[in-house]
Each structure stands twice: as C-alpha cells, then as structure tokens.
C-alpha cells in the first residue's frame, strides 16, 4: 500500500518552494545574465529577428527613427571622412552601416555572434569597410581613438554600478582628445510608470525563450531608493530552469550628470533621444552628449 497522500503533499511542498524561488527578490544588480542572454544560440536568433523587425521598437528602433538619428548625428557632430566612430553594442549594424554610408570610419562591437555575422554580411553586400568586432565591449581594447562613441537603445542602464564605472573608464580611453559620447537612458518618468507584478505564460513570447515547450514566469520588482526596475524571467524547460535578470537603472539628467562626473565626464547637452529631440521630462527616455573632462 502506497502513501499517495504523502507523495502528493511532498510534491506540492516542492512546487511551492520552487515558486517561492521564482518570486524571490534579488538585491539590485546582484548579478548579471546579459552575456548568457545574448549568446544563447536560440535566444540570440530571436534577438536578431527582433533587431530586424521594422514594425516594432524592440531590440532596435524602427528604420525611420534610425535614419533620422543618423542624419542628426551627422549634422550635430559634423561627420567627415576623417571622423572615427565606435558603436558599442552595435547589434546587426543598423547604425554602423548607415554611418559608414555617410563616409565616416566606423567600428562596431558586440558579443552576439549572430548579430556580428549579420552586420559583416550587410557591410560586405554594400561594399563598406567597417570593423565589426565580436567582443564584450567591457573587455574591448584597441590602440585606435574615436571622435564619437555611441551606445544606443539604453544599454548603459542595464549594467550594474561597477560595470558602468568600468565602461566609462574604457570609453575615456577610447576617446580622442576632443571626442564625445552619445547614449540614451531610461527616465524617472518611465520608473514611475512601472508597477510590481507577476505574470505567467506557456511558451512565452511566442517561443522566443526556448525551441520546445517552456513555461515562463516574469516577476517585476521595483527598487525605490535606487530607482531600478528588474524584470526577472524564469524559464522552465523539460531539462533545465533558467533565470534571466533584465535590469533597468533609471535617471534624471541630474543623477546621470553626477554619475558621469564621478568618472571624469561632463554632460554637454541633454536631449529627448538620440535623434536630437528636445528633452521632455515626461517621456520614457532621454539622451546625453558628454565629453571627457581630462585625459586619462
């Protein structure tokens, strides 16, 4: 005779504990899973498709915005054939190709193998000489110096404080003496609009996370003091359970300027976005042009 009630009770307790772990709140930027996300063979393929989907603003902006952004960049920074630009987190080269077509000398860095492969093919098809480098930009090193460093699509705020300091030190080393850095971040208005919640889905995001059946849990946490939002994804497949931590640091122009100043940078201009729109505190993002205060 078996104790079916006891087995069921044990299974329920184990399931309950598993769900408790799903909804466990990490400390802000306790760990990063960005590399695992972008280098997973299945997920990276989906991310490339999201980059190239011109109907949504997902991994990349829509083509019309990118065209407007590149046109503004060309005017704002006076691009010429002598202008050296590096795009950190370049993805499939949506900016690098357009900037090279305007005559600039362009380098793109990304650690997604599928994205870099696509960017290299796109450049080759257009007869463009672009240095697309497969590398984590936090580890990228070169003797070259750049007039403009780009980081597009709010990548700066997905990094933890230590990673951001390391990145700014690397950018300082990459910049030419009169170089500038342009990047965008999530705003405090965006933080205020987020709410803590928990969601569940079968085969979440249309199979984005796994090639076969999977169960997805998303738990959103807000950290009021730090102005950080975390979307914690737990993906349960038949043979494994993964946790992906999608962090978002939010800023005001003042808090971003203070963080940059601590790393030797000065904000030169605050903008609504990387296409040069006027700053609006009510929108979900803003951008800055910054310069290095002194040589490293």
CATH-defined topology of the domain at 37-187 and 250-292: Rossmann fold
Low-pLDDT residue spans: none
SS-derived structural category? alpha/beta
Q: Report, as a whole number of angstroms, the end-to-end distance.
A: 76 Å
Shape: globular
Strands, count: 11
CATH class of the domain at 37-187 and 250-292: Alpha Beta
Largest sheet: 11 strands, mixed
Give the name of the CATH architecture of the domain at 37-187 and 250-292. 3-Layer(aba) Sandwich
Rg result: 21 Å
Query: How helical, in percent, are the residues?
Result: 25-40%
Mean pLDDT: 93
CATH superfamily of the domain at 37-187 and 250-292: Vaccinia Virus protein VP39
SS strand fraction: 25-35%
The helix/strand order is HHHHEHEHEEHEHEHEEEHEE
Count of DSSP H/I helices: 10
Description:
- The chain has 296 residues and is an alpha/beta fold.
- It has a domain at 37-187 and 250-292: 3-Layer(aba) Sandwich (Rossmann fold), CATH 3.40.50.
- It contains ten helices and eleven strands.
- It has helices spanning 4-22, 34-39, 41-52, 63-76, 94-101, 113-125, 161-174, 188-193, 204-207, 253-262, and strands at residues 84-88, 105-110, 131-134, 146-151, 175-187, 197-202, 215-223, 228-236, 241-251, 265-271, 285-292.
- Strands 1, 2, 3, 4, 5, 6, 7, 8, 9, 10 and 11 form an eleven-stranded mixed β-sheet that branches.
- Strand 1, helix 5 and strand 2 form a beta-alpha-beta unit.
- Helix 4 (63-76) crosses helix 5 (94-101).
- The radius of gyration is 21 Å and the shape is globular.
- The model has no long low-confidence stretch (mean pLDDT 93).
């Amino acid at each position: 005779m078996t104790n079916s009630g006891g087995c069921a009770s044990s299974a329920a307790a184990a399931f309950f504990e598993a769900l408790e772990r799903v909804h466990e709140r990490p400390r802000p930027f306790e760990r990063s899973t960005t590399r695992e996300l972008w280098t997973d063979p299945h997920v990276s393929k989906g991310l490339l498709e999201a980059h190239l989907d011109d109907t949504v603003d997902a991994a990349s902006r829509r083509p019309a915005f990118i065209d407007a952004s590149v046109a503004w960049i060309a005017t704002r920074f006076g691009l010429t054939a002598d202008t050296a630009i590096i795009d950190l987190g370049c993805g499939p080269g949506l900016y690098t190709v357009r900037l090279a077509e305007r005559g600039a000398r362009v380098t793109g860095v990304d650690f997604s193998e599928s994205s870099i492969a696509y960017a290299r093919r796109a450049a080759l098809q257009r007869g463009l000489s672009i240095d697309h480098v497969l590398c984590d930009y936090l580890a990228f090193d070169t003797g070259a110096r750049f007039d403009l460093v780009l980081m597009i699509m709010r990548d700066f705020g997905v990094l933890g404080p230590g990673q951001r300091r390391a990145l700014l030190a690397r950018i300082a080393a990459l910049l030419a003496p009169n170089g500038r850095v342009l990047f965008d971040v999530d705003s405090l208005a965006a933080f205020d609009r987020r709410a803590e919640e928990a969601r569940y889905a079968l085969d979440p995001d249309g199979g984005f996370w796994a090639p076969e059946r999977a169960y997805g849990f998303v738990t959103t946490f807000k950290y009021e003091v730090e102005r950080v939002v975390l979307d914690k994804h737990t993906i349960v497949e038949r043979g494994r359970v993964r946790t992906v931590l999608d962090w978002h640091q939010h800023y005001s122009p003042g808090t971003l300027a203070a963080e940059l100043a601590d790393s030797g940078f000065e904000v030169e201009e605050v903008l609504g976005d990387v296409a040069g729109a006027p700053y609006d505190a009510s929108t979900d993002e803003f951008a800055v042009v910054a310069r290095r205060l002194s040589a490293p």
